[in-house]
Amino acid sequence: MPSEGTRAVHAGLPPAHPDRPFLDGPVFAGTYHQIGDPTGPYAYGRYANPTWAALESAVAELEGAADAVVFASGMAAVSGTLLALAEPGHIVVLPSDGYPATRTVGAHLAARGVTVRSAPTAGDAQAAELAGADLLWLETPSNPGLDVCDIARLAGLARAEGALVAVDNSLATPLGQQPLALGADISVASGTKALTGHSDILLGYVACADQAVADRIRGWRTLTGGIPGPMEAWLAHRSLATLHLRLDRQAANALALAELLTARPEAADVRHPGRPGDAAHELASRQMRRFGCIVSFTLADTATAERFLDALELVAEATSFGGVHSIAERRGRWPGDDVPPGFVRFSVGCEDTEDLLADVVDALGKACG
């Protein structure tokens, strides 16, 4: 089998044909010709589109999945999975430190008769909540705390209870972590982030080990209309060809930044799963091939963090992660994350390492005197 970088370049491309592009352009169609009874795959624009189909084939290949379903955004993929699979009377176990909007969907499930339990990511704490569960939702590494749980162990425990296992793989991407190979049933991700990497589209996907599960989730997408635009799907597919290059550069930069910050007295609680000595490093090393682009750390207080962010020259202050441009934010400005006031989430981009580190050192000096 070709290596992962080669597969990323070629995933989902059509066979070579004279006078045809490597990747066909986006198909803009709300309606297709249908003569008589529907017989082909494309009956109506909300049901299917050849541009999505090519991207779904590529994502399924990279995730090692039976099938993948693409959505209009990461949260469309998250909510589509949870709402399609969790029924009244079911028990769902969520991470208490995961993405806040996922927990908000959990509150909607609870209002509809689903029992929702939660526990932190670190230490596999969700294992204690699995009795009778129907669905276990993991987020590893967690966002923004960067804790890691043992996917294979928790998947085994969940399977013994008859539960499906879904993993939010947004931070790692399929080239950083393979949840399905570790025993999960579903890998969910925001393609807005590192998968596409240019901060210019919204996209999400769900990759499934079992075709029947994918069919349920695709049916929910059709019913609710959470479909991606063809241009977004085409841009996402095009971006896969550089995924391994971007991830390698970002991982190297993130590790360099984490090591720099660990040696600086201004920064406390520096976290990055790729840094030897990080609380999550040993476990992350067993189940991740790349450790992602996020570094988190805590400065003295809100004012110090704001001065630091304002002093950065190469790093934008923005909310997201995974793009080729480095961005950072004081995460406590948003409700939902239990973090200290001076907590900074730093998404490391593809700039030259020396330039990026110099910018951070200069900003720390200006912020902390």
From TrEMBL:
InterPro entries, alphabetized: Cys/Met-Metab_PyrdxlP-dep_enz, PyrdxlP-dep_Trfase, PyrdxlP-dep_Trfase_major, PyrdxlP-dep_Trfase_small
Top EC class, one word: lyase
Gene Ontology cellular-component annotations: cytoplasm
One MF annotation (Gene Ontology) recorded for this entry: cystathionine gamma-lyase activity
Top-rank taxon: Bacteria
Region (Disordered): 1-20
Signal peptide: none
Entry EC number(s): 4.4.1.1
One Pfam short name: Cys_Met_Meta_PP
One annotated GO biological process: transsulfuration
Gene3D superfamilies per the UniProt record, alphabetical: Aspartate Aminotransferase, domain 1, Type I PLP-dependent aspartate aminotransferase-like (Major domain)
Modified residues (N6-(pyridoxal phosphate)lysine): 193
Keyword Chloroplast: no
Cofactor(s) for this UniProt protein: pyridoxal 5'-phosphate
Keywords from the UniProt entry: Lyase, Pyridoxal phosphate
Family as reported in the entry's similarity comment: Belongs to the trans-sulfuration enzymes family.
Name of the protein in question: Cystathionine gamma-lyase
Lineage start: Bacteria, Bacillati, Actinomycetota, Actinomycetes, Kitasatosporales
